[in-house]
Amino acid sequence: MRLTRRALAASASALCATLAAPAALRAQAAWPDRPVRVIVPFPGGSTPDIAARAVAGHFQQVLGQPFVVDNRAGAGGAIGTEAIAKATDGHTIGVSIGGPGSTARVLNPQLGYDPATDLAPISLLVRLPIVFAVHPSVPARNLEEFIAHARANPGRLNYGSVGAGTLGHLVSAEFAARHNLDMTHVPFRSVPQGVTELVAGRIQAMGAVSGAVLPQVRDGAVRALGITSDGRFPQAPDIPTFTEQGQGAAIWTWIGLFGPAGMPADRVARLSQEAARALQAPEAQRALTAAGFEIVGSDPAALRSFVTDEINRWGPLIRRLDIRPES
Fold it and tell me: What's the pTM?
């Protein structure tokens, strides 16, 4: 299923009912009984890091043990996500995003884990649209003008992402393929690194999560040509959507909370409940909204369905364009 606003509201209602469950459920078994690792597959300061820390602090308060963020960047998030999937200590959870959390096995059949079977979905924490932005030297004010510019300059434009198969890359690659644009993909270790290179003009375009690039858009350091939200995004109402420019349906990047497959169901339920509480806290809402997030806080079933939907949506594109980890 696609997580439309109606679906999100239904998920939130179901989760509220769960929050009202008997105290006996919330008082089950003394877990955790030692510090818990919260693996983030990207560097400190990245959007997944911000989301993870928003819930980790709450977990630490209510569950009585340290929840220690462990940043394990690399391979577009696959290194850290694999560490979540393979954890056997009973005290490891983590966050992941679209590529490593859903389509990574399609991208790389030799990957050491399968997101569809080796992760226990806990909660879809937040979602963000992708902003397609260009360096100010690019003479385009909208997507149609960018298409014309790219066609007039084959092989001369570079676009960035945080790795092959990540959502920012897939959005740009699908856009380029649909319009037969000859552009070169340049992967970076993190979104901030890619945005820095875009600001410097060493790449000409990038599809980046809204929270990572909107400050540079507002400062005039880069120019936003389109955003992938399903309507004008509240934090950037002046940026026209891909949909209104005739460039396809809404696309959301997302950050989910996961454990390794086999995590006890009561533990998953408790963490999902507490994640919802963490996201409802006024200070968390202020911080996450300021970072460009749309707050979700779903139940585990909604995240599982969303992961399946992402695999079905992007898997065929990855195969058709023959995208590989090094591409």
Answer: 0.80
